[in-house]
Predict the structure.
Amino acid sequence: MSSNAQSPKIRRISPLSPTEAKWTQLNKIEWTDQTGRDRIWEAASRKTRGKTGIDAVAIAPILRHPSRPASTLLILQYRPPVQAMCVEFPAGLIDEGESPEEAAVRELKEETGYEGKVLDCSPTIVADPGLTNANMQVGVSLVTLAVGYGDYARGRLSIFTPGMVTIEVNLKEGDKEPEQHLDEGEHIQRVIVPLTELYDKLQDCITGRLGFTGVSDWA
């Protein structure tokens, strides 16, 4: 984000008609519960879901360097629905004709500049099933600089849920931070955090010691 960028702000919130909605729709679900009683449920869904049946991917990068501690890569971006700057892992929607693995590689490069090879992919998960059927697959991105994938496989990095999309990225001593390839309208800051400091850093976010309070598990 450039130094002269202004702070984002909400100008107005109003109802959205179905004809105006580009990304989401509101559905009326008629269902029968375990006692045989008919019920109604209101839920939101994405209009962008493709043939894979999966909406999005998220990546938890693990950066390794010969002379630096093992770290992860978080992103900061403003989210209008919660009116706050949120701390997230890189993530994004899966394009039509794209596999979750391909989307994970693309999104990691777009949002952070890092590239790598997929090693593993998680089962499909949902984040807020009481509100929406939106789902995703989650990945751990290994930026291998000093310690190899074996440490992840042996469980030394158990901070992350097993069964994720794993992307291995190999960097060298002296490599510069790669250039982001953001879409129009995206304003994303990158934050590298040593794994041993991740909990404390997230606590700082929650308490507002870093100047914002939004914390999200993914986009």
In short: The helical segments are 100-112, 149-153, 198-207. The two ends are 18 Å apart (CA to CA).
